[in-house]
Write a structure and sequence with these properties.
Elements: H1 2-20, E1 35-43, E2 49-63, E3 67-80, E4 86-93, E5 100-110, E6 113-120, E7 128-131, E8 145-152, E9 157-161, H2 164-176
Antiparallel strand pairs: 1-2, 2-3, 3-4, 4-7, 5-6, 5-8, 8-9
């Protein structure tokens, strides 16, 4: 009798976990350039049930006078719990960038109009700088150009104009998951 009870409990717990986690029969779908990642479930700080999926997209940008920087965009979407999607973008430096303040200036040119937004990143190790939420490209379209300026202590900057495909991806992600104000 005890074995039957344990077996029934095992199946009940298993079914609960299966149905409580977001299910994607063909795998986690991509959202534009974002590749589906890990599903999660659990409770938030208030004890409310939450579940969702994480997505990411990786890029390499070549900054003149510095070299290559790896860029990772991460998005977490929630299916329950009433939370809004969370976004972040990280710049991973291969080597330290002399005098880099952690601040970037994003210049977006759309329809002859230039929009400049500055963002201050957080870094624990001086090599990975994270900006959360994702950069805001409100008003930009698929034909917009984006330049990223890495601001240095001496007032100078290292600038890189993003390739058209990369700029389109960043704009798409930002517009799919807009910053809540």
């Amino acid at each position: 009798m005890r074995n039957k009870v344990i077996t029934v409990l095992f199946y009940l717990i298993g079914f609960t976990m299966i149905f409580a986690t977001p299910h994607f029969p063909g795998g986690i779908p991509s959202i534009g350039p974002l590749k589906g990642g890990v599903t999660f479930w659990g409770t938030d700080a208030d004890g409310n049930y939450i579940d969702g999926v994480t997505y990411d997209a990786d890029y390499n940008i070549n900054v003149p006078k510095y070299g290559e920087i790896k860029v990772t965009i991460g998005v977490t979407t929630f299916y329950s719990g009433g939370q809004k999607a969370e976004t972040s973008i990280s710049f991973v430096l291969e080597k330290p960038m002399d005098g880099f303040t952690g601040e970037v200036s994003i210049n977006t040119v759309s329809g002859g109009k230039t929009t400049v937004n500055n963002y201050k990143g957080n870094s624990n190790n001086g090599r990975t700088y994270t900006y959360s939420p994702m950069f805001d490209f409100a008003g930009a379209d698929k034909n917009s150009g984006i330049t990223v300026d890495f601001l240095l202590n001496n007032g100078k900057k290292l600038s890189v104009k993003l390739k058209k495909e990369t700029a389109q991806d960043w704009i798409f992600i930002s517009q799919q998951f807009p910053e809540s104000k």
